[in-house]
Amino acid sequence: MFNKILKLITAKNNNQPVSSWPVKKSTTSVANFKKRQTSGFEARFLRSLKGVDLSKRRIPLMIKKASEKGPILWLCAAIHGDEVNGIAVVHEVFDYLKKVGLRKGAVYAFPLMNLLGFEIISRYSPYDEEDLNRNFPGKPQGSTAERIAYTIFSEIIKTEPTLVIDLHTAFAKSVSYIIIDQPNPQKNSPAVEEAVKYADKFGLIWSYETPETSPGMNTLTGSLIEKGIPAFTVELGGPNVIDKKFVREGVAGIKNLLKYLEIVDDETLEYIESPYKEVVKPIMPLKFSSEVSTPETSGILEYKVEPGQIIEKNQILARVRNVFGKIEEIIHWRGEKGVVLALEDLSVAFPGLDLFTIAVSEK
To answer: How many CB atoms lie within 10 A of CB 333?
Structure first.
């Protein structure tokens, strides 16, 4: 009776009988399934580690290749799990590449490097509460974070990339900007020089990060620079929520580079540059300031500058009021001429609290 009913029931999909559906075991390979579901690019997973429940922890990888060899561009996103704008940037770039195709070369992307951090809305790797972006180039037998970093780093360098872009976010009150790790401020390596060239074509304000302001340099981009591979970090707005304004700026910059590197042949693409970069050009190149202007008292914070604003020495940056509204302190800029890149997402001040991201002119 059951078999008779099965013969009477048919699927609407190509009029095939229900009994022919792969209910028990599919004959379709996993590779073909992935390819079908991600038409236009190749999707892979890198093995990371195994969970207590025997589930596999994996890192997703997206690949788009042309038939002709050429430049290799890497995009990396969400190494900090709460920094999500880069994920949307990667998706939009690959949507664009599916439409226009590649003239030559290849584009690789890690759309989400810190998966568990993303799922629990945390900057850190939840396995050991480490900052994944302070553990590069990683170690195959190191800490949990170092092992994950090693997997990511090894996959990138084996492709011999032309450029690696690491997509991050800073604060809600910020402009989009680029960080270039500069291990030796006295003499730029060829990798740093190449990174500067590409950063300039990206179209945003860019600034050097030196050992003076970032002693560790164990970041993904810093480790790549040390390996001789051009790389830089792009900061796009604030964390936690995808902000389309900053996503558009990230996508526009990557399209600038796709055209410059001749990876795509799209005559409709026009070079787009941030208006903030035009304002800051007279004082570029920039470097992050080691000078800090921090509060000496606690209170309610009132910023007096905006991101993208040029500032001079002794300019007022913020005021601190007590609970009754009386001004307890006025915070002045102690450094030389520079630009405000970001303001901390805070309304409270405490003594010594770092509130500003400021870059100063190298000139």
So the answer is: 23
Per-residue pLDDT of 20-73, as tens digits, reads 223 333 333 333 333 433 458 899 999 988 888 888 889 999 999 999 999 999
Task: Say how far apart CA 357 and CA 307 lie, in whole Å.
Answer: 9
Contacts by 37-44, CB closer than 8 A, 24 or more apart:
38/62, 39/98, 40/64, 40/94, 40/97, 40/98, 41/94, 41/97, 41/98
DSSP annotation of 134 reads G
Is the pTM of the predicted complex or chain greater than 0.90? no
Any long-range contacts for 315-324 (C-beta under 8 Å, 24+ apart)? 317/293, 317/355, 317/356, 318/349, 318/355, 320/295, 320/349, 323/299
Specify the DSSP element, H or E, that contains 50: strand 42-50
Which stretches of the chain drop beneath a pLDDT of 50?
Answer: 1-38
Q: Which residues pair with 164 in a beta bridge?
A: 74, 231
Pick the closest to residue 196 from 208, 184, 211 (CA basis). Answer: 208
With 0-12 / 13-18 / 19 or more C-beta atoms within 10 angstroms meaning exposed / middle / buried, residue 38 is middle
The phi-psi region of residue 221 (left if phi > 0; otherwise alpha if psi is between -120 and 50; otherwise beta) is alpha
Q: Name the strand (E) or helix (H) holding 298.
A: none
Q: Which residues of 228-250 are buried (b: 16+ CB within 10 A; e: fewer)?
A: ebbbbbbbbbbbeeebeebbbbb
